[in-house]
Amino acid sequence: MQENLQDSEQSLKKSQVQILELKEQLAKFQRTVLGFMFENGQIDMGLELSENGQLSNINAKSNMKITGEQKHLLRVLDKSLARELDLEKKLAESRQSEKELEVKLHHTEQVAFHMEEAAEVIWGRFLEAENAAEVLMDISKDMVGQVQLVQFNRNGSIQREIEMKTKLQDCIEQLKEKDVALEKLERSNAEHIAQSTEVFSLREKVNLLEEMLKESQVQLVNANGCNEASQEQLSEMENVINSLKENIYIAESRAESAEAKAAQLTETNLELTEELNFHKGSATNTDQKVGLLEKQMREYEIQLQHAKSSSEASQEQQNMLYAAIWDMETLIEDLKSKVAKAESKTETAEEQCILLSETNLELNNEISFLRDRTEFLEMSLDQANNAKLESAKEINTVTKFIMDMAVQLATERERIQKRLNKLTKENKILVEKLWHSKIMDSDVDGDSKELLFSKNDQINANCTKTSVEAVTGSLDKSLQAGG
Coiled coil located at which positions (predicted)? Predict the structure, then answer.
């Protein structure tokens, strides 16, 4: 803009110089005309020219008598002087218009200077915004890299979580298999216990029968040795043995009944002894009753012996039962040890599950932390994008302002161009008037005038061209700076 304004000032100065040259040429022309008139001795004129080359008043005083042709020449000269005065007035007006144009140019220079300052400020802000955008882009790239690392770590943690879940599922399946195996073991143990109880019961019964057979054989030997005549008792014992063989399952009940009978017999024996003592004390002569009582006593003693033998057999059966119970307790303890081992395995599996759950919790915490971090990074990216948008809005507003100023400059340029066109037209009109006024002069003077007018036309055209080019160049530069 400053260069264009300087060019326009130079063009104005050139136009002023050309106008001064025109004035000097006019003055020279007037002097030559006056000299020519003085040489002919026709007129005596007094000319007064100012320092600026302006013509003042011409007072022609003639002391001689003039002819009609001389009067005609004087009239022509008066007309030419009047035209020159009009031209001087128009030149003064053109100078005033030039001054106004200079003032306007100064104003436009100030506006252009302010526009340049504003453009520099805007350019600085734009550079700051670009730097901030680059910094934000670097930060966003770093944040994107961190987000990618976080996502990579997250994917690794997810894969680890999947692996841990698969391991958990495998452990759960193993635990289920172990539970199924434990159930099978328990079932087999229960079946084994049931079978062992049945076997033990059968063994106990067989042992009891064998013992009873042995006792019966011993009793038979004793009976044969003691009394060979007691075949009837042997037959009864054989019947009893057969009955015992037949009633194997009722031995315990009989032992209990034998014990009850033994208790009853002891009680009856005591009662009988008391009755004997009572009868002996009373000294009755009931010998028959005593014999009967003695027989009853013998029978009761035999029954007591049988009860004692049955009680001994029941004790042996109890001992066998205790041994079987001991064996069962040992088996139960073995099973308990196996169950304890299985429980220890389950506890270790539970501990592993707890450890896996703790690791899962830690992984979940890490994942939540990474999610929070990614959200924070996304928020920062959003803030950076918002800052970019705000800077872009500011740049748009500044560009709009610059475009408005460019439009104003364009309007000012059009106005100045119109003014220059108007001035060129007025100058052309003035030149044409001068040319018409001086057409009556000599041919040599006419040739010089034609050269002068052609020079003026070229100068005016150059001035208008340079002013237009300067304004257009300034507008183009302002538009480029705004873009």
Answer: 5-32, 158-195, 227-352, 406-433
Q: How far apart are CA 420 and CA 11, in angstroms?
A: 12
Largest CA distance in the chain: 239
Q: What is the dihedral of CA 373, 374, 379, 382, to 10 degrees?
A: 150
What residues have CB less than 8 Å from 34, skipping those under 6 apart? 45, 47
- Name the residue with tokens 């389950």: 346
Write 100-109 long-range contacts (CB < 8 A, 24+): 101/12, 101/416, 101/419, 102/9, 102/12, 104/416, 105/5, 105/8, 105/9, 105/12, 108/5, 108/409, 108/412, 109/1, 109/2, 109/5
- Over the chain (483 residues), the average pLDDT of each successive run of 10 is 63 71 71 60 42 42 51 71 77 79 80 77 76 72 71 74 73 71 68 60 61 62 55 56 56 63 68 64 57 69 72 72 70 71 71 72 75 77 78 75 75 79 78 70 48 46 48 48 46
**Is-above-0.90 flag for pTM?**
no
